[in-house]
Amino acid sequence: MNMLSKLLAIALSVSALTFASAASAQEAPDALVKRISDDVLNTAKTDKDIQAGNISRIVSLVEEKILPYVDSERMTSLAAGRYWRQATPEQQKQLITEFRSLLIYTYSGALSQVRDQKIEYKPLRADPADTEVEVRSQVIQSRGEPIQLSYRLEKLANGWKLYDVNVMGAWLVEAYKGTFQSEINKGGIDGLIKSLSDKNKQLASRSSAKK
């Protein structure tokens, strides 16, 4: 699972960043990804603060460039599975907040690792009327085999949103689903919220120590 986490971190830093600019809701999802990716990858590669691991700079970039293009509610509800409907509106809100914070730290930890990666895209298999699509690609590195990536997106009123990422056959939501279920079985919805909160506090502490 540690290796999967590392691959997810690298993949998320490369793939999720491609949603870094406002674009027309009419633009095809693969076109959006291709158009934005080069610019954002260049930023990650050339920004000295990001390369040096400046946490405040990285977190700011993640919040500004990535999160607006992620459907945090759907991602959280999918990870929680059937337990999502058992949570109160307030618990759902807390889960979304804590899970989003966890993803911020995941993205932030990976951004400083971006060096020479390039993305190659595969033809989009979708109809113009589709409201959910899967964009497939692979990350090419100077060393090692290409990392196979797929992105699940949905078309909402305000444009395309990312809600899941597949890294070498493993979907991000599924990877978290087992952890969510385990924590809920031990302490209920509140137990999961506390677990995520504690993890985020731990990551925040580590981040502060690096400043």
Automatic annotation (TrEMBL):
Transmembrane segments: none annotated. The keyword Repeat does not apply. Keywords: Signal. Residues 1-25 form the signal peptide. InterPro entries: MlaC/ttg2D (IPR008869). It comes from the Bacteria. It holds the Pfam family MlaC. The keyword Protein transport does not apply. PANTHER family: INTERMEMBRANE PHOSPHOLIPID TRANSPORT SYSTEM BINDING PROTEIN MLAC. This is ABC transporter substrate-binding protein. It comes from Herbaspirillum rhizosphaerae.
